[in-house]
Amino acid sequence: MVRELIIELYLFLFKMLFLLFKPLEVKDKVTFVVTFGQNSIFVYEEMLRQKTPYEAVFLRKKSCSYDFSEYSNTRVINFETKNPLDLIKSIYHLATSKYVIIDNYYAFLSVVTFKQEVQCIQLWHAAGAIKTFGLRDQSIKVRSKRANERFLKVYKQFHKIVVGSDALANIFIEAFNLPAGSILTTGIPRTDLFYDKGKQTMIKSALQKENEALKSKKVILYAPTFRDHELVKFNIKLDLDLMYEELADEYSIIIKLHPAIKEKANLEDLYPGFVFDYSSYQDINELLIVADYLITDYSSIPYEFALLGKPMIFFPYDLDEYMLQRGLWDSYDNSVPGPIVYETNDIISLIRDNQFDLEKVREFSKKWNKYSNGRSSQQLVESIFNEKAYLKALHG
Fold first, then answer.
1. Of 111, 294, 361, 389, most Cβ neighbours within 10 A?
2. pTM as predicted
3. Residue 391 has what pLDDT?
4. Which CATH number fits domain 196-368: 3.40.50.80, 3.20.20.20, 3.40.50.12580, 1.20.1250.20?
5. Any idea where the domains of the chain sit in the sequence?
């Protein structure tokens, strides 16, 4: 109740300040509101390549691992902090930008009304979805009526939603209760990396130079999603003692916990030369490039890892509980392109015996990465800023 009251007071202040700035002229400006950042960087760098004549502003949430300081010709403002000046600046740019590009759910959208010429584009942070969200999120049952109304108001602000597949488009239409015409099938910008062999070689070489074990051994990446009750400290269920005993000679493990988890694992001293904690590493897609195997559960990482055609193992040790608390879009068996296991012994056997069906991975990638063809950033920027050029390229 107290939390809801605080949210309502914050949103009331946000609305009043937005109304104050709304009469000002809308400028040729793009404001990115970022929690994650990867897609926004790819879009902005493409804007620079195409010499798009728009000013760029980044409203950066504290959880975002990118500070955008390398871009000298942009404005970067910390978003949703206790600093009143940052709040005023943020709202000013939101009220005076021709394009607002977001990568997550933002409650402020429930209390603002953009001018007719403004577009709000949802550049979601995932290329696919196993767990439900939006109107299918299980938490909708325990939210207040006022909170659910706020969620609906946020979804109605999305003029366009960027997708890499028809499968994801259908999920968004259901999750956000939006018309099919709001879907923009330009592909997911950050997946362009998986088509750039030169950049992949540079990334892999840099990671291996910093950590020799990533070059001398095969690399297993363990990247579980967060659990709502483990946002402070994640309880790793892998039997690392057993994996160390059985695999340490030929393999190394990278642990990449979800950015939402506050305390990271401290396992490197316990398993020297075998376990490496990369939870604070900025870009998980770079870790996908160096990984030979992926172990995950309900994360969206497999949708991008599939573009590399490498084997995946799914370790949903709390599947029944997770389905009740969060919900899945489909049965788990139908959702994942690799073997499902519940014990560490089985993970070890799969890796040792190379028990993987990579054709299943390829079919999974075709389904979920249909429009992510290595030119997604280009196609999105052309679609937004130069519709004629985009249509010509599409049908060319």
1. 294
2. 0.91
3. 47
4. 3.40.50.12580
5. 2-188+372-395, 196-368
